[in-house]
Design a protein that fits this description.
heterodimer; A: 334 residues; mainly alpha; globular; B: 122 residues; Methane Monooxygenase Hydroxylase, Chain G, domain 1; flat
Amino acid sequence: MTDFIFLLIKAILWVAVGVGMVPFIIYFERKFAGFFQSRMGPTYAGPWGVLQSFGDMAKLLSKEDLIPDWADKPVFRLAPYILFVPAFIVMALIPFGPMGVEIFGYTVDLVIADFDAGVLLFLALGTVAVYGIVFAGWASNNHWSLLGSLRSGAQMVSYEISMGLALVGLIILSGSLSFVDIVDGQAGNFWNWYFIPQIVGFVIFYVASIAELNRAPFDLAEAEQELVAGHMTEYTGMRWGLFMFGEYVNMVVVSAVMATLFFGGWRAPFEALDFIPGFIWLVGKVLFFVFMYMWIRWTLPRYRYNQLMDIGWKIFLPLAIANLAVTALIVSVN
Amino acid sequence: MINPSVDIVIQLGLMFAIGTILAVALMTVARFLAPTSKNPNKGLPYECGVLPEGDARLPYNVHFYLIAVLFVLFDLEAVFMYPWAVSLSGLGWLGLIEMFLFIFILLVGYFYAWKKGVFEWE
């Protein structure tokens, strides 16, 4: 019973931090966008505009929820949930501290689910997001939505392959699919982290994750100038809000996965810094990757669709296969 | 708690429940706060202000289908590679050569698709 209470506390705290970050990430994204473009960004709501996201949320909650007459209504209603919920299951897999810690006399594992096939589950749930987008586009029965969702579906499945193959090299090194074991394999100082031997895999994974999240420069699905808002064209009010919210939650979760797989998860860069709790390191790394996403988004122009598919299929896929072959060869020789 | 495999279901199910409850709660709040007003024009699909063209479910480029088929192939291949990657250290040279053979056969198909122009979008 105590185990279950601890599980509940861990889950609620982790979700509170992960989801609680989102309004501030949205605020900082807009603020950074302002700075990158020599303007101020939001300034009115609260000091320096920090309450802007909460104001937006109140606005979205009080907007009318429209469903077009020609839409496929049950699927139209279901689609935002499909995009929103899987991110939470991935959150469960990410360790935020060592296993078997003593807290108030109880032994607690600082992870919600130590799943043996965690990496596989993460990739599987990443593909579920494609259903959300394709359902949304198809159910809307709108030209923009359908085109946007087709583009996005093809783009996401293309990069899913590179993403999956880029992780094989890492799994060869760690010898396990469990996130907890992968973090344990990176114990010690930062030169033991997997991003050094797997730098190619990391770059492929990072770029593929941008495509998976449908963010600029790969945001072809919602290219405003061509497709209005892609699969979200017909959505209004909080249903649209769920899409955006889900997108940012996904961004936090993918950043956390990246930090865990390649950058030692909750571990400090130097063993001497271990007195700082692992949770803080993990959140710091997550925020670093989120900032990188913003930086890339506001710096690079959008790719054309054929360029996007060329990068995915003609560069990243062979590179990922070469990376895994070289890693396997080196590991076998040693 | 009970046993490892049941635990996983409870743990993942709990997170699934939290996510679903959060989404449903947001939608429920919106239902009470949001106004509703009936107007036949609001039900029309958005096409930049002009009257809609008709049903959107028209035939589309066959490339999307080809990409989907290739995705199934390559993703299955990736799934085959995970158990091999986990146990590579215990497999020795034979395991390595077998996987290289597997990758080689797959690359033949990949270059065939490339030459056939599956990856060309014009």
